[in-house]
Amino acid sequence: MKPRWTPARVGDALHEVDTPALILDLDRFEANLERLMRSSTVRGMRVRPHAKSHKCIEIARRQMEAGAVGICCQKVSEAEIFLAGGIDDVLVTNEIIGKRKVTALASLAVRYPKAKIGVCVDDVRQVRQLATACRALAAELDIYIELDVGHGRAGVPDTPAVVDLAREIKLHKCLRLRGLQAYYGSAQHRRSVRERRQAITAAAGLAGAARDGLLAEGLTCDIVTGGGTGTFPYETGSGVYNEVQPGSYVLMDIDYGKNEFDPIAPAFEPALYIIASVMSARGDRVTLDAGLKAFSTDSGPAMPAFEGWQVRGVSDEHTVLIRVGSDGPALALGDKPLLIPGHIDPTINLHDVIVVSRNDVVIDLWPIEARGALF
Amino acid sequence: MKPRWTPARVGDALHEVDTPALILDLDRFEANLERLMRSSTVRGMRVRPHAKSHKCIEIARRQMEAGAVGICCQKVSEAEIFLAGGIDDVLVTNEIIGKRKVTALASLAVRYPKAKIGVCVDDVRQVRQLATACRALAAELDIYIELDVGHGRAGVPDTPAVVDLAREIKLHKCLRLRGLQAYYGSAQHRRSVRERRQAITAAAGLAGAARDGLLAEGLTCDIVTGGGTGTFPYETGSGVYNEVQPGSYVLMDIDYGKNEFDPIAPAFEPALYIIASVMSARGDRVTLDAGLKAFSTDSGPAMPAFEGWQVRGVSDEHTVLIRVGSDGPALALGDKPLLIPGHIDPTINLHDVIVVSRNDVVIDLWPIEARGALF
Lengths: 375, 375
Known about the structure:
The structure is a homodimer of 375-residue chains.
Chain A: E1 21-25, H1 26-38, E2 46-47, H2 57-65, E3 71-73, H3 76-84, E4 89-95, H4 99-111, E5 116-121, H5 124-137, E6 141-146, H6 159-170, E7 175-181, H7 193-216, E8 223-226, H8 232-236, E9 243-244, H9 254-257, E10 272-275, E11 278-282, E12 285-288, E13 303-304, E14 309-315, E15 318-323, E16 338-340, H10 344-348, E17 353-358, E18 361-367
């Protein structure tokens, strides 16, 4: 799928890039990639980065080359895109329901027989639908039971429910019980190290009990997986988890930047920007040509990547900046300042391509193939 | 551009639609379309609906068939898509700057010589860039001077600045001065009728003075255009404006629904929904498979289109609903409830297709051709 409007060509200087567009700083990106894989906080762990953050096959490939065992995604349509892109181990860290979705996932197992394809369940009806689809297509899938370790969003509530669901899975030869999905989403952005650590200590207690419950019944639990950019060092240190799923680490955003830094963790740096043009200027107020359709505001607006200016307002296609001090650049009509996204996942999902730069020169364009893969 | 994953086929019942997806209720849509065009609140006015809301050629075509003089859009790349779709009068209600954008717009005037193509300016440098591009391509463009009537986002501040800019435009034969863009964006969602009416009275005063200033200098001002879904009856009643630009009226959303209703205005009803599946259910808590990538939350989350349930949380791919009373439906795993978007413009921009329904049956699929047209 070729983007219809390409914001840049290889060799362009950054100030030649059409706006608004996503700019990836390749030096920072590569540093983040290395920092994770070399960190003692993932030592001995399987690392399965979450591709819902970036939705980009090239980034997933680089994560695999750096040592990831596979990727996570959230949607069957995302799994399809990454499998087609050559990623051969994809876990859908989410429940799916309905004939169309379960059939689509089972079909992927047929189409990519050498790939590992997994999905989560938290209800016997999901298991039965998956089994019916797999039997019809002679497909097999890896199954992870999602345990609710605190978020209250999905997952079975306790060890007896895990064991019950595992027994149901074992009834179906086409479904391979692999272990537990024990991701604590809402813990990722708890600001203090203490809160994040406490949350994961509690999660690991629940996950460990569920794993022990499965093993005590002679059931399988090879993998306990979970952990995001905000907490993975604590999953690693728990003695329970053996796989972590950080996603945002490789690009970062304002929201993760607000977390209290834990010195045991790698120091990831923002590697993704939005470039926008000053399309109207009135002294200490400038209006940029990037708004709600160029970045999401659920975790606050994108922020200037420089001093002296603040966001006064964001509307569909505009962001108004006002000068708040004598530091920082003068901004004039036609200038192209950089912003840092508030929350990368829904921001990247608004764009068709990432403009990749090194030393302020465009060196590549990476399509965001899974942009809009909602299904 | 064909969507890669189609959520429905014509003839499907709504409960067969893959989720999450946009559902348009065609009866309501048609009623909104008629209500606007038949309303006394647009009598004698040129109606130029804003296509930034829907980004869909089929909707623009229906607006033209219903009597619109043309459409508005915000981006050159949107203008390109609507012109290619057969809409022959497109006003970019926004400033553009930079060689690439001005050249792209001038090229459209060459490619569509019978179309009317307009753009806004608020700075002499935009005018000169546009003139240079038009001269190079032997193209002509319609030019509207944007006047800041209160929003403080773009536009020149006062009548002398309007006159100065008009004199500059007149120097360039390839640029046709058409009039004033006098849109008061931030007035659209002032909740009380009194506030909205006051804001537009003030705006019309400024626009009228600017128009008179142009005419007194022998300069052109055939069109004074502005007004959105929240205020267009007041622009119509002002005696100054002769064109209005409502966009959201045809689909509506939660945010516009919160405005105090003015009995002089047409009673538009929500016509666009998000259909989502219950992918996890735990008693009085259900989790839907639609989150920040299926609807925007800048004006609050999408809300259930039924009683008895409230949104407890929204994350990238999930919305958690909790039961808040005995009214309303029971929701079970696999059910597909409808939500009403908080803000349609950035919500539609997340999807590739609108599933069109009548009496809960899918009767058409309309591509959202300008989805992601950021440039």
